Amino acid sequence: MHDVSTTRYVFMTRHFAIRGLASAATATIVARSATFADASEAPRPWEAAPREGFDAMLWRKRHARLAADVARRQPRVIFFGDSIFERFASTGARSWRARFTPASAMLVATSGDTTQSALWHIDHGIFDEIQPRIIVMLIGTNDLPAFSPRDCTRGIATVANRLRERLPSAQLLLLGLLPRFDSPELRDAAVSVNVLLANVAFDARVRYRDIGAFVAGDEARPSRAYEPDALHLSEIGYDRLARAIEAELRRM
């Protein structure tokens, strides 16, 4: 039997998908936007690359620690992504404990990660020697300031396919980018990425879902689901995100 929150989730998910399809034309507009820097000399979103800069050493140490923890814990469900998932351990801790810890779920997420760094993690042993049942993946929003929606989509698809190659027995729940309210250009770019992702021909063990409308809600923008930076989630946002993911996991 579906409760009220589940019914609302299904309705809003369908509504957002329809609205997203109507916004497909924004991909062309956003691709021309000056928001996207010249990245001709940088690794492209579908090319593996480690973190560079002042925090590169700390980032590699975190990678090694996460890889060791994954091997030790042998989780059945892995949440793989960037700061949105990483903050499940802080801002979203109550929702995480209530809905996912009993399912032997583990957060494998690092703030600031892009599709390039996600690919590097995979290629450098973070998921070796394990057999999870499900991977929940949310990555790509950090690529948007530097790359077009089409390139960002290719990067996300490459990460998804690399996970399928590395973990062939696992199912993959691929989440669309959550709505962004930090700039109109990036908001439209995220919508465009999700439209493009919906048309990628993934294999049968990849389940793509755009749950952004349910997470953002219908309050004034930026909604109560977001922190003041209009990008990261509040406790309310994490409650909605957890409920939406839990509903999807029950169908897998």
Task: Characterise this structure.
The protein is α/β, with parallel strands linked by helices and 252 residues long. The chain has a single domain (4-249), classed as SGNH hydrolase (Rossmann fold). It is built from ten helices and five strands. It has helices spanning 4-22, 26-31, 56-73, 83-86, 93-99, 115-123, 149-166, 184-197, 212-216, 235-249; strands at residues 77-81, 105-109, 134-138, 171-175, 206-209. A five-stranded parallel β-sheet has the order 2-1-3-4-5, with helices on both faces. Helix 6 runs parallel beside helix 7 and helix 7 packs across helix 8. It is globular, with a radius of gyration of 17 Å. The two termini are 17 Å apart.
Overall pLDDT metric: 87
The SSE string, one letter per element, is HHHEHHEHEHEHEHH
Separation, N- and C-terminal Cα atoms? 17 Å
Q: What is the CATH topology descriptor?
A: Rossmann fold
Concise account of the structure shown:
It contains 10 helices and 5 strands; from the N terminus they run αααβααβαβαβαβαα. It is of the alpha/beta class. The protein is globular, with a radius of gyration of 17 Å.
